[in-house]
Amino acid sequence: MYAVIESGGKQYRVAQGDSVVVDRLDAEVGSLLELPVLLVSGDEVKIGAPTVEGAVVSAKVVEHTRGEKIIAFKMKRRKRSRRRMGFRASHTTLEITAISA
Q1: pTM for this structure?
Q2: Strand ranges of the sheet holding 2-7, from the earlier edge strand across to the other edge
Q3: Which of 34, 30, 86, 75 lies closest to 56, judged by CA?
Q4: How far apart are CA 46 and CA 59, in angstroms?
Q5: Interatomic CA distance for residues 57 and 21, integer angstroms
Q6: DSSP notation for 35-66
Q7: DSSP state at residue 30
Q8: How far is the first Cα of the chain from the last one, in angstroms, to the nearest whole number?
Q9: Do the beta carbons of residue 95 and residue 19 sit within 8 Å?
C-alpha cells in the first residue's frame, strides 16, 4: 500500500517505513505530523479531489538538515559583469509511520 502526499507544494510517493526528505517544516524533532493525502493505492485506488476524505498519513520528524550548496553564476558577456551567489536549502527528514485510508 502506498500514498501520494503533498508537502511544500511538492508531491511525494510514500509507503509505510519510508524515509522522505522534504522542504523545512516548522516542527520539533521527534514530533508526529499528519500530512494531506492526494491518492491512496491498496486493494483499490482512491483519488482525492483535492484530498482523499478520511485518509491520513502519519509521519515522525527525524531531523532537520541543510542540502548541498548550489552556486548560481550569472555573467553578461563583453560587459565585465559577473555575479556569483550560493544557496543551501533547509530540509526536514520524515519517517512514515502509518497510512490509514
Answers
A1: 0.81
A2: 10-15, 2-7, 37-41, 45-47
A3: 34
A4: 20
A5: 15
A6: E-EEEEESSSEEE-SSS-TT-EEEEEEEEEEE
A7: T
A8: 10
A9: yes
Task: Say whether 31 sits in a helix, a strand or coil.
Answer: coil
Rounded-to-integer distance, Cα 64 and Cα 25, Å: 9
Query: Residue 28 has what DSSP assignment?
Result: -
Tell me: the pLDDT tens digits for 55-87? 899 999 999 999 999 999 999 999 999 999 999
* Residue 90 to residue 27: CA distance in whole angstroms: 13
Angle at 81 between CA 79 and CA 87, to 5 degrees: 155
Query: Cell numbers at residue 101, please?
Result: 485510508
Q: All 3 cell numbers of residue 32?
A: 508526529
**By the 8 A CB rule, do 38 and 11 touch?**
yes
